[in-house]
Amino acid sequence: MKGEPMKSNMHHTYRGPVKALIADLAGTTVDFGSCAPAGAFVELFSRHDVPITLAQAREPMGLHKRDHIREIASMPEVNEKWREIHGAAWTDDEISSMYEEFIPLQVESLPRYSDLIPGTVETMDTLRARGIAIGVNTGYSTEMMDVVLECAARQGFVAQSAVCASDVPAGRPAPWMIFRSMEQLGIYPPDAVVTVGDTIPDIEAGLNAGVWTIGVVVTGNMLGLNERQVEALPPEELDARKKTACDVMHKAGAHFVADGITDCIGIIDHINDLMASGKRL
């Protein structure tokens, strides 16, 4: 029967508080500077006689590690060097083989780079005390993630949900890891969820999931420096690097940009105020 469409009262604007924080691992909660994966990629390509820089190793950070290897190999300079050394373009089989080679290389290095970023335990304990569920996700495989989670647990941080790229059909920038964490935590709608990460794919995954996104710039891949190196920077140089990183994160669509995980408490308070007034970025 034709006629006017019925008006629905099902649509609503969520005005409740944040119910969950889903955080990245390397560069966000552990491994200040996200040094473990960067170094492992440099070593991997060196083993194939194709040297890469740390900057090249870091550029695709946040992706599933197999996708990360492919992105590095696809860089014009790296692709050209590969052809020069190996006499032909790389193949999908070679990328798969390199990923299998990368797994034990990364697993072996992870315990050396799994110190919690200062303030992580205190931040998570404060949020949990407010009733906010905590999840983590990562571009690492299950084997890699388990090593990091075990190290984190010994330091006092245990998340209620942990999802890695190999648990879902596709890693970042797809939203599936976030949705899997939401399912495991029993949290919805997306407006009630905040994600925090140190890479552009972290931000893109959060936007694709329709959740609030926080980009961190000092403790992770955007600066790419460990804690001692950050402390050694002249203040004006640190400020300049932070501004550049913040601009990149904002351009990628991050709702908020912070120095590190400890800033999430204040940002979540602000998000709660925004939602209580019916606003959504």
Summarize the helices and strands and which ones pair or pack.
Layout: E1 20-24, H1 35-47, H2 54-58, H3 65-74, H4 76-86, H5 92-109, H6 120-129, E2 133-138, H7 142-154, E3 161-164, H8 176-185, E4 193-197, H9 200-209, E5 212-216, H10 227-232, H11 235-252, E6 256-258, H12 264-276
Parallel strand pairs: 1-2, 1-4, 2-3, 4-5, 5-6
Helix pairs in contact: 1-5, 3-5
Write a structural description.
- There is one protein chain.
- The protein has 281 residues and is of the alpha/beta class.
- The chain folds into two domains: 20-36 and 114-276, HAD superfamily/HAD-like (Rossmann fold, 3-Layer(aba) Sandwich); 37-112, DNA polymerase, domain 1 (Orthogonal Bundle), CATH 1.10.150.240.
- The protein contains twelve helices and six strands.
- The chain has helices spanning 35-47, 54-58, 65-74, 76-86, 92-109, 120-129, 142-154, 176-185, 200-209, 227-232, 235-252, 264-276; strands at residues 20-24, 133-138, 161-164, 193-197, 212-216, 256-258.
- A six-stranded parallel sheet has the order 3-2-1-4-5-6, sandwiched between helices.
- Strand 2, helix 7 and strand 3 form a beta-alpha-beta unit.
- Helix 1 packs across helix 5 (92-109) and helix 3 crosses helix 5.
- The longest helix is centred in the middle third of the chain and has 18 residues, at 92-109.
- The protein is globular and about 60 Å long.
- The relative contact order is 0.17.
- The model is unreliable at 1-11 (pLDDT under 50).
Essential attributes:
single chain; disordered N terminus; globular; DNA polymerase, domain 1; 281 residues; 12 helices; alpha/beta; six-stranded parallel β-sheet; Rossmann fold
